[in-house]
Amino acid sequence: MATNKNARLRYEALDKCLSNFSRRYYIEDLQKACCDYLTKELSIDTTVSKRQVYADMKEMETSPSMQAPIKAYQDGQRKYYRYSKEGFSIVDLTDEELLGLEATVNMLASFRGMPQFDWMTDIIRKLKKKYKVSENKRNILSFDSNVDLRGIDRFKELFNFIINEQPIKITYEPFGKSAFDAEIHPYYLKQYNNRWFILGYNPEYKDISVFALDRVKKLESLNVDFIQDTLIEDPFDYFFDVIGTTIPNHGKIEKVILEFSPRRYQYVSAKPIHHTQKSNDINCTITIEVIPNKELEAIILGFGKDVEVLEPEHLRNEIIEIMKASCIKYGLLKNDCKSPQ
Fold first, then answer.
1. CATH classification (class only), 5-83
2. pTM above 0.70, yes or no
3. Per-residue b/e over 50-84, b at no fewer than 16 CB within 10 Å?
């Protein structure tokens, strides 16, 4: 491979595109990929001509150190470019990188018991064969998973759409409502409470939408330009002020104070509800600063009689109404009485 830094970076950018069998790269796409990669790596705006891209691919093909099997495939009046040999790459790993890869492969192997990561088995096999990496057969990690979760079979497909910046159309059916279609430019997959959610830009609402995988009834790619993420950027920051995945419209951050029974307080202190949590050992209270949502209500209700909402008042009243409705359902309250009969 050439020692010139710009040439090396262009080869790396082209290699990433040409080895990707999930997307078709035309000459304009390869040109853009080179420009974007150089701009990112050099921290300055960089342009690359189509002529340079053609010359680089020729060098990749003829160079004894690369010998890249690049092939042009006819697609109507245009051509897209791809390696003719799947799994080929001009990028080699150092001994140090191989050691890191071995540790990573062993970690990935531990995910194979989870249905959404079954596809990693094939990846691990290819890595072992190509780089002669051994695999530790002993499983030393365990993760919570819902083996019967609907929609989990779409995980790999959605994962690839995100990686390849491919817009999609989904048919979504919320609980108790009619199904509808939505165009999504997918950015991120998030797990919460043993459910997976896809997040992406929704052009209809000009904002981020969140969809549970188990409610996605149909999924297909769209032939439209991908809209880059300018809203989420860092998923941790995006969900910083909430528990779960629901961000209420016009919601605001509030101080939530919860008082626990002494025994349950020890549990909550050891396993915080939210990363903003502050504990008061004297009063057995915890304080979090979040935007109240349904997930927070569910957590509070999950503690049953061991918790009392002290602030804010509207959240306390909401929990009271939910508990009243529950008591009525079990026949504990009649005629809106305030005590069991």
1. mainly alpha
2. no
3. eeebeebbebbeeeeebebebeeeeeeeeebbbbe
